[in-house]
Amino acid sequence: YPWRHAPETRLSEFNLTEIEAMLGSYTKVLFVRDSFQRLISAFMQGTGSSPSFSSFVQDVLDSGQHNASVAWKPLVSLCRPCLVQYDYVVMFGFLRQELGHLLRRAGLHVDSLLPEFTDTQVQWTYSWLSEQMFSELSLQQKKQLSHFYHWDLAAFPFSSSFLSD
C-alpha cells in the first residue's frame, strides 16, 4: 500500500484488510521494558513536574490510563500484543544477545552492525534504584500501580518487577 504510506501515516488510518496484509509482510519486533523501570526513567528525565517520586506516581495514577503519557502508559495499550502477532519480543537487559540473534536470522554480520549496549550493565543500577523508589510508595500506591500495569505484567515475563509482588 505504498500509495497511502507516508512517514506520518498511522496504522489506524488503514482498513482491517490493509492492516492484515501490511503486518503479514513485515517482521514485527517489539522492544519492552519493565513498567516500573519505565516509570522511574520518566521521573528521572523530568517528564512530570512532581518534586518526589511518590507524588509523581500519584499524579500518574490520578491521570488514569487514557490520559497517560507514552513514557509511562501501559505497554499493552501502546503495542497491542493481543492483536499484532510479533515475531520477536526483545526485553531491556538482553538487547545485545537478542539483536545479535535477530541479525543472524536476517543473514547479517553481527559484529560489524551492533553498537555497544549498556542495558545489561545498568540492570544492577536499576535494580537498586527500583528498590529505593518502591520503598517511597505507600501500600495503596503499590497496589494501584500493580493494577495500573496489570495487563503488562500478564503479557510480559517481568519476573523481577517490583509490581508483580
Quick summary:
With 165 residues, the protein is mainly alpha-helical.
Structural account:
This protein has helices at 16-24, 35-44, 53-63, 75-79, 95-105, 110-113, 119-135, 139-148, 150-155; strands at 29-32, 88-91. With 165 residues, it is mostly helical. It has one domain (11-155). It has a two-stranded parallel sheet. Helix 3 (53-63) crosses helix 8 (139-148). The model has no long low-confidence stretch (mean pLDDT 82).
Taken from the alpha-carbon principal axes, the silhouette is globular
One letter per element, helices H and strands E, the order comes to HEHHHEHHHHH
Number of distinct helices = 9
Oligomeric state of the chains present here = single chain
Order of adjacent strands in the largest pleated sheet: 1-2
Structural class: mainly alpha
Rg over C-alpha atoms, rounded to the nearest angstrom: 18 Å
Domain count, please report it: 1
Chain-averaged pLDDT: 82
In terms of DSSP E residues, the strand content is: under 5%
Q: Between the first and last Cα atoms, what is the distance in angstroms?
A: 45 Å
Low-confidence stretches: none
Number of strands: 2
- Please estimate the helix content: 40-55%
> Biggest sheet: strands, sense, closure?
2 strands, parallel
